[in-house]
Amino acid sequence: MKYNTQTIRNIGISAHIDAGKTTLTERILFYTQRIHAIHDVKGKDGVGATMDYMELEKERGITITSAATNIEWKNFEINIIDTPGHVDFTIEVERSLRVLDGAILVLCAVGGVQSQSITVDHQMARYNVPCLAFINKCDRSGANPDRVIGQLKEKLGHNAVAAQIPIGLESHIDGIIDLVSMKAIYFDGEYGETLRVEDIPGPMMDIAAEKREVLVDAAAMFSDELTEAALEENIPEDVLISAIRRGVLQRKLTPVFLGSAYKNKGVQLLLDAVTHLLPCPADVQNHATDMDKPDEKVVLTHNADDPLVSLAFKLEDGQYGQLTYIRVYQGSMSKGTVAMNVRTGKKVKIGRLVRMHANLMEDIETIPAGHIGALFGIDCASGDTFVAPELNLTMTAMFVPEPVISLAIKPKDNKSQINMSKALNRFTKEDPTFKTYVSDETGDTIISGMGELHLEVYVERMRREYNAIVETGQPNVAYRETISQLAAFDYVHKKQTGGSGQFGRVAGFIEPLTDEEFCFENKVTGGSIPTHFIPSCEKGFKNCIVKGPLMGYPIFGVKVVLNDGAFHSVDSSDNAFQAAARGGFLQAYPKALPEIHEPVMKVVVETPTDFQGSVMGSLNQRRGLIVSAQDEGTFSLIEAQIPLAEMFGYSTVLRSMTQGQGQFTMEFLKYKKAPQAVVDELVKKIKSAK
Amino acid sequence: MENSKLVIANPFSKMADRNEDVIKEGHFGAVLAGAGIGKTALLVQLGLNALLAGKNVLHISLNDPVTKVCIYYKEVFGNIAGQNPSEGIASTWEALLPHRFIMTFKVEGFSVPKLEERLTDLIEQNIFSPNLIIIDGLPFDETVGPSLNALKKMALDKKFSIWFTVTTDPGEEKQSQGLSPQIAPFEELFEVIIQLKPREKETLVIPLKGGSDPENQPVLVFDPATLMLKERK
Q: Is 0.80 surpassed by the pTM of this model?
């Protein structure tokens, strides 16, 4: 087993849907001899690309589940995570980025930077992932790599600079000029597997020299050695590569590569770039949090001989049980050793370890620091940290947004009921943004997640993978109740029905709290409520926020201050004080001017400019606050803030309004007070449901 | 209530009569300076001043992306609010947002008919009706004349005022009233012209034309570090 982290690259391939990342991955697997035949995503041969292995993904032509795969390229080991392209599955993208050291941002030479690319780019910035750009589909009619580089600069703020230029474009793309080696490269053979390196064609020499100068100027910002070499007009290749690499690692330079995965052009050069320019695990500083000192960050060593620190970032149900994808940051995870799950405190024995190649696997003995692998037979959740038993470290908690939409589902028959439970159990473990519970009122199973499509895909997966047929209700928005002013309470709970009675008095106030669900403060002095009953009071108050008295939605943002009370030496009990707290809360709540808050989404619509006016109108009609309109020539980007409740079915509306050319992305932004008309409507709905 | 407190604390309000706009409906204003001196930041402060006075502001940028313009507003608002800390500042910001609209165009893609079409869309659909427009990055070259005339007509018809940024060359020869050659030919279209001049650690705000009471106007300086305009003590 090789332990040299210098020759490891953990990379992700992030892109807009349809930018062709699955085809690109497929070609990478082919050239690295992981597969021996090439299939298309929407394959005419019915086989489908290897990384895109789920049936549903094949049908829709999109990637939903990340699959990790390991390849070798010129003595480098590259672990690739294929990330999903749709914004509704961003937790998958975020999880992938968390464990990656670098990424390839794939862009379409025709479509360029689209709204999804912006979201994905923000995520890369959040996790500080250095990246290269690959402009794919240069063979398509309308391909314009220069325009895409311009968009990378303007829309994403990247210091993007071409590292290659195409020889011909659209259907005439013949090869690629590498601006580092200043050579023309052609891709011969049935699948472009044979590289033919030649001198740059005469007519292209000037443009190549001009573009190289731009590349050298950009890279010189990161290397004095390169600046000096440039002055002497003798730039060794390795000096230029090392300068570009420095810029990439600092996320201050994005070299742009190009080609056409579908036409087998440029993929091998991209692989070279990955090995030359993206960081190895040792180039990236990873931190863990010491559970004993939560404020202190511990820098991990990347040393395979140190105690183990690893992160389970993805779960899948395979035919041999749960498969857990794991990234080892420090130490090694070896078969037969013991590791501790920091979340549960349980020690587990490491059984079978594998290295994944899409849905095929290879047994291995050890996963050393810096590597990604998978293990069998471990019961854990996504995001769990596994460490050597003597450590108490956790990897930084991943940012997990709260679900904003829910849907009631009913299994069609008993068999579906059993299968549905199995499916939900797996999905909730795999995806922290997907949650499920049983409604106390209706007895229905409720699933909640980040968007309509997110939930639709899980319902579909239940049917396909688990044969669980479920009927779905109308989607429900996750409204919240909150209070808007301080209100006092003074409540006595007294019950005398024979036998020992119940007595408890609580007094204090409730007040609004920002950014926190609930907070309880005990200011009782003089023992008016005995200390051992204070937790009872807190529990009583806390139970009240689960379901708001106003409309039954959960309450968010309430601080309860308890400052007085009374007890009875015989009749006071845990139950009596819980009941008193409930009474006190209900007494104060109406006086605290409760409000209903609704989730507001950040919506970015991309539309041909001709339809800008009508799209703005459609957003405005949906109680949207239009923040900006960005005119990009033939198309425009409109950003708006719109309540989620108004966004159901918007994709259909947008498609028909823009002759199928408009698209939008949506992500949770904030909770905001719902207008009275909406609240009245909700009241009506609740009443009619009763 | 909160808004007016912030207006008082904002020295821009001193450039005009109390409770009056710096420029009125149909009027043009221009901020002249070399590249990187702070024209955008100054206009953002002016935009915020109008927003705080309850006006609708349309910010058109031909150079910067939407995100950058948003950051300018947030930073300048943060600085204004930082000088007047009080509870409810967050809700003031939230309340201002519906009154601001940002549009970006590529310089080569911007034209007055296009802007008019967009504006008509916004106004007719009751989405947004500006009282003040800021146009940042319009190149003041030999071809700008017809655009300025068309904009003037639009401003008078639709009853809004427009502020422009004009990038000057520090080495260029000044025309009458100290005006740079970019704006001198169109001087009569502008009611207010301000120049930003860097001096050591601060930037002087020099009124070249207009202002309600030039004699009694305070000496204003622009602090590039905080992007804030302040009165020189």
A: no
